[in-house]
Design goal:
about 300 residues
């Protein structure tokens, strides 16, 4: 049977909630100015609502959200973010991993990403995987949906102004290698959910994953059927030839972009995954925002086989 999974990223929910003067410190001042003078013209509440309705109309079996739900990590943004995710689907139907904007500044777990914990809860016991959201670092986590394993990691770390880098770190790297190996030996179709592009050279240095080379080594050695990411706000498709076959790496534009200021309009991918004649098959359908039609239209469809 075909299992259908939707993927969106970089929601950047608008508008920003009211903030206390004491909250507008450090890097948040830079982020607020970026929002006021550029980003608020791009990240459109109309598109944020339309993409939810478009995904729900197709009734996928699951939805993946790969980070940057918020903008400058205000506590009120996480409350709004949880409400938005609830509108997208129940926690068992939606999986989330954070991005750099979700860790724009350091925020206590309970006031920040803890609000989203139910969407980052693993339910498959695999050596190295976390299975509870009641901790500040529940990564990597693994969710089983039929014979598909969704592996979520976090690259979200606070950075200096002007930087949007991400980092997995040695602990997640070691756990991820063991998880991918374990899932491969058990015959799962493995999907890695990550915010930053996972390979060296796929993002500018000040926005890149700092340990992308280490992650590449893991993907080379253990393989992975599909890697989904965001961060660059453009559609991307790269392929890595691992010891165990092709690793397809796909990124999507911002889920709320209206296409202003030379940005790519919002888009989302739906993956149709099935097992046929002893092999995995996956096709991709892409739906893109059409400003003239004020809705999403099918742009393309292709196979990853």
């Amino acid at each position: 049977m075909t299992f259908r999974i939707a993927h969106i990223s970089d929601v950047h929910l608008a508008p920003l909630p009211p903030a206390k003067l004491s909250e507008m410190i450090s890097k948040r001042i830079v982020g607020y100015n970026s929002w006021k003078f550029r980003r608020q013209a791009i990240h459109d509440p109309r598109v944020a609502g339309a993409i939810v309705e478009d995904i729900k109309a197709t009734q996928p079996d699951h939805t993946m959200v790969t980070g940057d739900l918020v903008n400058i990590a205000l506590p009120g943004e996480f409350i709004n973010g949880k409400k938005w995710l609830q509108g997208l689907g129940r926690p068992d139907l939606v999986s989330f991993v954070p991005g750099n904007h979700d860790a724009y500044v350091a925020v206590p777990w309970a006031q920040g990403m803890g609000h989203l914990g139910d969407y980052m809860t693993g339910d498959l016991t695999v050596p190295g995987a976390a299975t509870t959201p009641e901790i500040a670092m529940p990564f990597p986590y693994v969710r089983q949906r039929r014979n598909i394993a969704l592996v979520g990691v976090s690259t979200a770390v606070p950075t200096l102004p002007g930087y949007a880098t991400g980092d997995l770190g040695p602990a997640q790297m070691e756990a991820l290698a063991n998880i991918l190996k374990n899932l491969r030996t058990k015959g799962f179709y493995r999907i890695l959910m990550i915010h930053h592009p996972p390979l060296p050279g796929l993002a500018r240095k000040r926005k890149a994953l700092t340990d992308a080379q280490d992650l590449k080594h893991i993907l080379d050695d253990e393989g992975c059927d599909l890697v989904v990411h965001g961060h660059n706000h453009v559609a991307m498709h790269n392929t890595l030839n691992s010891r165990y076959g092709s690793v397809h790496i796909l990124g999507v534009p911002s889920a709320t972009s209206n296409g202003a200021r030379n940005t790519q309009p919002a888009a989302w991918n739906e993956y149709h995954i099935r097992r046929a004649s002893g092999r995995w098959k996956c096709t991709v359908n892409t739906r893109c925002w059409d400003e003239e039609k004020s809705g999403f239209v099918t742009q393309t469809g292709y196979s990853l086989d």
